[in-house]
Amino acid sequence: MFRSFYFLLALLLAACGGHQHVKVEPVAPQACQCPKADQPVQATPAQPPVQPTPVQPAPVHPADPKLKPQETLASGSKVADYGLLKPARWEDLAGFDQAELVQSWPAWLQGCSTLKNRQPWQAACEAAGHMPAQPSESNLQAYYRQYFNVYQASNQDGSDSGMITGYYQPLLKGSRVKTAQYRYPLYTRPADLITVELSGLFPELANKRVRGRLVGNKLLPYYDRAEIEAGLAPLAGKELLWVNDPIELFFLQVQGSGLIRLDNGEAVHVGYADQNGMSYQSIGRTLVERGEMTLDKASMQGIKQWARQNPSKVQELLNTNPSYVFFRELPAGLPGPLGALGVPILGERVLAIDPKYIPLGAPVFLATTQPNSNAPLNRLMLAQDTGGAIKGGVRADFFWGAGDAAGQKAGAMKQQGRLWVLLPKGFVLPAATQR
Fold this sequence. Notes:
The chain is α+β, with helices and mostly antiparallel strands.
């Protein structure tokens, strides 16, 4: 039954030339590839002084009508995992001594709840458990220097700057049952959605996958957004919650997690469960190309305002993005959404990164600027999340937290930045990155 399926995959991979959490991402050109929900088009902010030669990411491509891996290797080249990290010195981290390490310490402790069981993180996490309950800045400076080495992230072209964008956790109003007010569903993962991990067939394609549905003995692309909205997918009974606004639901899918406030006051945490395998197409870019909106207005807030003024056009616009996200309900009382590391992520202290180039869970010193500003933003962050469009050695999404204020900052953030990765002593990197 699956012989023709394996043959299809072989053809598919040959054709490729060789998203999950979903986050806000600029509609301006992105790094590497784009199967993650992106944020609307924004006006380009002033560049920070730390990047004399900003990296220009490759353009966003529309969805391929054929099945294809959700991650592809840039330009057909192969880079070993973490192979773009270059040894650096603590002195290279300008501002690290004033980075307010105390503020990021709770996020590191959250990460250690998982990392403590993995080599070579154990020694650093065990030492963290013996630190004072309220460590001082000097305590933490000494801790990181004792247990970690510093590496600078770079791109395949050798440059050391890249795009830093933002994401947040939306807050929506909703219901557990469909009503006249709450009639737009959040769906759980469909039973007929198949995910194929390609590493089982091709070891060099670790962490790469295709999604689709079986029709007879053929794997076909899963239903796109328009087909799902038209009721063609078998999703009856898969409604998790209902909300009152389709454009807010769309941006919940963009972010991949959020809070749904019920009329009885209950706050329901929802998180990413899966995605239909289609590449994201920016609706902000579509509006600009159609002449419905100017580039400087095509922010997330601008798109929402356009939707309020054009309710009859909203669904057709949303259908131009074939990507669709499915959700699951998360435990109540979480301090934040669950990231890819499996721990709740904390606002303004967590980055989403490409785990091929930066180890998931690592502390990362970020040097960038505030959204739409030249004001420095130098901070120790934790690489505790990932995203389908966060691809490349110097590429990150900054988690701003929950609610409208965080959404304003996330929607405005499209800065150039640099990244230094802190790895525990004894962490083995590819030979190309050794001294």
